[in-house]
Specification:
mainly alpha; Growth Hormone, Chain: A; 78% helix; disordered C terminus
């Protein structure tokens, strides 16, 4: 039964390991942002750190889906988390020796992004398989719930440790979290993992995935909205530490508190989604979440008070939870049979467009200041979302259940989402 699989030991392990590593990731992101801002004074270089972290998704995201299909995935997870733990230990040693420099942070960001480009299609796809088709939305919501809690906890810990202990203390805790994830994977890996090696050539596999995507037109607007969010929505988070320190004049610890407000909102949203979400509402939530996210980011750019800024970030997190939980679920629910891993790889590529968004907002912030940069990118995001809805109005509709086919047109041809 799906319920038993959803709460089985392998699924819970993936959920817990994801939470541990997500805490370390959000902690690293804030600590690196503050360190780089203190060292360079440039919002563009701050945004570049996140750009480098996400750049591998652009370069290797599609291959990540193929690799996840060809190799034993629990071993891939073990490799991923071991590599990140080792890299974080190196950052701790450099910072403890007072040798840490901005270029070290850039190299670390790119290296961790390279590893995470494999984690996304591997771990999320495994969770979907373990949960079962009927429980995919709930499984993704639970993962977003755990991740949202870490988005609040990571910045809180990072800001406090950076202020009280220094950057080395933050990296030490991060390394411990990653190491704990490694031990959990080792201790809880299933004894018998059924894996059938794939001998199909990589390029042929990619071409088949692209052909299947073109046939299943409902995935195109879903992926287009992901691109909108990652180009003009998500890059907004890179400006929150800059906004906190330069516009609001906050300490490192309070900057961590401000950043964690977005995670607190995401946690509240994830709790509501895990209890109330219904698969047929997935597309509505997905589209509305991106529109609300950009609107809140636009409002945030005009604030000058800590309480109001934190409240708006809380709302930003609330709607980002809806977007995050629906994103993977919609791709898995609408993927052509046998192409789920390839479509998750395509999703990784779409998420990997974010580096262009970070480059865009970082340059604007250097030229015009962080508040105006946030306002411009949010307005562009709302415009882009309107264009997607104008081109593909059908995306804002009810999501058929996993047992229910997409309706056909009067001519007898399949609507977007059905296999021809």
């Amino acid at each position: 039964m799906p319920e038993r699989r959803l709460f089985g030991r392998p699924f819970v392990t993936l959920l817990a390991v994801g939470a541990l590593n997500s805490t370390g990731r959000w902690l690293d992101m804030l600590v690196i942002a503050i360190f780089v801002l203190d060292a360079s004074g440039s919002p563009f270089i701050v945004a570049s750190m996140l750009m480098l972290r996400l750049l591998p998704l652009s370069l290797f995201g599609l291959l990540g889906g193929v690799i996840a299909h060809r190799l034993e995935r629990w071993r891939l997870l073990l490799f991923n988390y071991t590599a990140i733990a080792a890299g974080t230990v190196v950052m701790y040693v450099l910072s403890a020796a007072d040798e840490l420099q901005v270029w070290h942070c850039g190299l670390f960001s790119f290296a961790t992004g390279l590893v995470w480009s494999l984690d996304f299609p591997v771990r999320r796809t495994l969770m979907g398989e373990l949960a079962g088709a009927a429980s995919i939305s709930r499984a993704m919501s639970l993962d977003i719930l755990a991740g949202s809690a870490t988005r609040m906890l990571g910045p809180l810990l990072g800001g406090y440790l950076y202020q009280e202990v220094g950057v080395q203390g933050a990296f030490l805790l991060s390394a411990v979290l990653y190491a704990a994830g490694v031990f959990m994977v080792l201790a809880n890996r299933p004894q018998q993992v059924r894996h059938q090696p794939v001998t199909e050539p990589v390029m042929e596999n990619l071409r088949a995935g692209w052909h299947a995507l073109r046939k299943h037109q409902v995935l195109l607007p879903i992926l287009a909205i992901t691109v909108v969010f990652n180009l003009w929505g998500f890059p907004f988070v890179s400006m929150v530490p800059v906004f906190g320190k330069e516009v609001l004049g906050l300490s490192d610890a309070l900057t961590g508190v401000l950043t964690s407000a977005e995670g607190a909102g995401a946690l509240l949203g994830a709790v509501a989604l895990s209890l109330l979400v219904r698969s047929e509402h997935s597309r509505y939530l997905y589209v509305c979440a991106v529109g609300c996210y950009c609107a809140m980011a636009l409002a945030f750019s005009f604030t000058s008070q800590f309480a109001l800024s934190a409240a708006l970030l809380l709302l930003v997190g609330l709607v980002s939870a809806a977007f995050g939980s629906m994103q993977s679920a919609l791709v898995l629910m609408n993927a052509p049979p046998g192409f789920d891993r390839q479509m998750m790889g395509v999703l990784s590529v779409c998420i990997g467009t974010a580096p262009l968004g970070f480059l865009h907002i970082g340059l604007l912030a250097d030229w015009l200041g962080a508040p105006l940069a946030c306002a411009i990118t949010a307005a562009e995001g709302l415009t882009a979302l309107f264009c997607v809805l104008w081109i593909w109005p059908g995306v804002f509709s009810r999501q058929p259940s996993v047992m229910e086919p997409e309706p056909r047109t009067a001519a007898g041809t399949a609507n977007p989402g059905e296999e021809n």
